[in-house]
## 1
Amino acid sequence: MLKEKIRQLASEFHDEIVAVRRHLHAHPELSYQEEETSRFVAAKLGEWGISHQTGVAGHGIVGEIRGGKGAGRVIALRADMDALPIQEANDVPYRSQNPGVMHACGHDVHTASLLGAARILQSLSAELSGVVKLLFQPAEERLPGGAKLMIEAGVLENPVPELIIGQHVHPPLAAGRVGLRPGRYMASADELYLTVKGRGGHGALPHDCVDPILVASHLIVALQQLVSRRSDPTIPSVLTIGKIESEGGSTNVIPNAVHMMGTFRTMDEQWRAEAHELMERLVDGLVRSMGASCEFKILKGYPFLVNEPALTERIRRMAEEYLGAENVVDLPIRMTAEDFAYYSQRLSACFYRLGTGNESKGITSPVHTDTFDVDEESLLHGMGLMAWLAAGTLTGV
């Protein structure tokens, strides 16, 4: 039985894939700098006899496994490879050897799991028909996003996949469990940059100045009203100003300028475009009414991520068969963003969460923290489930 063969191979390859993950974790590289990571992944694919192309959209790799039973369906599996600018605090043998860089978002697990799934699928290729495309993607963490660049490089062509599957670590779920949500799942993400320019001077003589701090404070409140008063309440939206700093200033000194940075996120492209126009008009009108000026830039980021409902329901059923129904859970909408969304806007897609936590081992830290780690038992399920989803889809299970 195919499912049992996959379980057996996942168990057989588990130690090897743990070693792969630990190597990747110890040698993290930032977005657009994944040179050694790419070389390591390519070497593994070559060692296992898997056809692949390197140098895609920078350091991306596209592998291909062709079933021995001839033509059939074409599907894609995706993993991201980049790390974050975080100094690791974990005291483990495989801790990051690159100062200030850490796999704090689990992309080492994603890459290792896809390598493990590829190893399994290659071992079973004689029993499969069709094609599995393996997308090892760079630069998920930074705009414009490696997914966008990979698509522009043609990874969804020759042959054209009918669907794509991806997974992401999720510390709140215990290893051995996964979570899914059909339909809209993750938000779009735009970056906001504002520089409010006034006229500085003595803090005791504000009438002689144009106070950019006061203007900025009004701007923050007004921008919040876009979400609270202008958006459809059925459309999830978030606007956050995450950083504000002045050029100089003191207890008795009004500065000349204030810089702000923030994010705007939503799950509707029409409202997203409308909100951009509203923000630009609001900022221009408000600052001029207060005698100031503002340089305002909206850096458009990833679109919202949508899981195709029928595909997601099918994957849920297959996950229940592989892991047990008690280990497959429903997930809420998330306002975080992922560049997998670019794929989901182009073809049927499912992006699910892989449990990696273990409270008894103290493995509970969230992603993007300096103590993030995973229960490596999750790799057994990460590679096995992904291989099962691919093989089962190709064989019509």
## 2
Amino acid sequence: MKEKTYEKEKLFLSPYAKKSWESAGRLREETPCAMRTDFQRDRDRIIYSKSFLRLKNKTQVFFAPDGDHYITRLTHTLDVSQIARSIARSLSLNEDLAEAIALGHDLGHTPFGHVGERVLAKLAPGGFRHSEQSLRVVDVLEKDGKGLNLTCEVRDGIVNHTKSGKPSTLEGVAVSLADRIAYINHDIEDAIRAGFLRDEELPADCIAVFGRDTSERINTAILDIFEESNFKPYVRMSEEKAQALDKLRTFMFENVYERANKLIQESAERMLTELYTYFVGHVGELPASYAAHLDETGEARAVCDYLSSMTDKYAIGVFKRLFVPREGSV
């Protein structure tokens, strides 16, 4: 079956796509799968990882919202995967590679969304970036310290998925664009649902470019990428659409993200700061899978590994256990 996939790639993929048999391989050699390509195997490893399962209880923008339809880190990841696959399919790129990168791109994200990332970046001596932590998760932390041993192309796409990153494959670029398209548009939905934003407050010039509703805006973005990049050795948006997307992103940061984050900023900062300080001073209480890397990385990195792995609810639970007096305690 794997050979059939190779034949399809030879027939249908763009000359600029990364073919499955062209992979630079894994950090550690292993016996190939008889049925799946390496990129398909990477996708499956990510889906069945513990860090992927934890994404369902990590904040995207709104923490513990009253409602069932707000975006979580997991639903955001699925959105990115779908958009990246659509871009890859339209440009005849390797859809399996794009999907694997998309599913793994936020595995290292902190609890409490970007507030949590900023707190750890301030506390940790070497800083903290969720893209680098996502790579560390798949390389080192998963499977009790063995890592997932993913291909070089998937690892590259994960660590370079942010706007400032420079992915080495067009599939990685597709994921980076898909990430921005996904979080801007679905965060607009959440902000309107939460009462932080009214539809008529959206920048009129951006809406004129992309459209009024989420589906129209996403379709417009994907079509623009196709028209700009088809049969080209790059993946990008047209200048008009790219500028409009950047303006919409700036608008969201100024009018939604900062306002929404203020609601959890103080509590999240206090909790994560207290937890960080506590575990740096009590490294013996770290779970064994994180303590195992102390000699290699030092206390600060091991504590960041542990804290960034937490879901929102788990972090709150650990904080309460350590710092909130219980009834009957002395």
## 3
Amino acid sequence: MKIKTDIAHFTSPLYLESGRILEPYDIAYETYGELNSDKSNAVLVCHALSGSHHAAGVYENDSKAGWWDGLIGSGKAIDTDRYCVICTNTLASCFGSSGPMSQNYPSEQPYRFKFPVVTIKDMIKAQKNFLATLGIYHLRAIVGGSMGGMQALQFAVDFPDFADDVIPLATTYATRPWTIAFNKVAMEAIRKDPRFQDGNYDKDAFKEEGLDGLAIGRVAGHISYLSPHSMDKKFGRNYVNNDGLFELFGRYEVERYMEYNTANFAKMFDPLSYLYIIKAINTFNLSRGYDSLYEAIVRIKASIHLISFKADYLFFPAEMEHIYKMMQRNKQKVSYHEIDSDYGHDAFLVEIDKFENIVREVLGE
């Protein structure tokens, strides 16, 4: 599968929901498959908090595939033999799009905290501007999980005629206090780390050792992405073999797993970007800008295909079912699937075999 990776540069202003302006700005992106002559086969894939535009395939001299490689590719549910699949890196991320460590023109210094707060609405507005540069004004489908699902739903509400089908997975119509509380742990852990220096650290300062505050915050996030059952199954009460049971800091396997994964994450993800993105997640509310959630939902014209996961303790299935029931009452085009999964929130990334047929059926001609 051919991967095209590039960065689109914009010099026209992006007017943000906050009232601020971002100018200039960049959007990093990848495409897989070829756009047909009338540009009717474009599928937009939206990524979650820690994701990037690298959704599928493997780079040359690299072994790690894109985060949704099991779903996107030749003959897969999102078939690159039929569709041109596009994935952009969201604003505020640290993988090529404009974010807090980008250059604050005309200064040569990074924005840091001078970068404006961006919302899910701002993210999709920037993506829509980017798609227009490719001559794409209508999409065959929009697909995304978690924060990517927020983007998919926001597209459906703000731009009702923009896509035929929208497939949001493991997401919500508004971020609830439970999720905001998990994000608060990360926010405070980052801010209180002395090496964070109130955001005045050097670019790439944490590539070698990571930032402890981000690693600790990521532990809280990682717990919310799993479920008690999946942790029991994966770790049980197994103890690290070479750690003494009565050593104060001796570890269970689940503790070692958290240490290893979050320490690596803290080396590759920028802490300021993490703060800005969890702010975007916390402020997500489909009804903002409209009189009510009903007034937002009733705008939708695309066919919506909601997919939740039974043991998702970050965005509970009931939240997506609420959208489904509302759309049903409105006689809008909607389907709802609650996947029988014990994995937790990250099932949308891990248990692709449990929902790929739903995506395949939606995209089938």
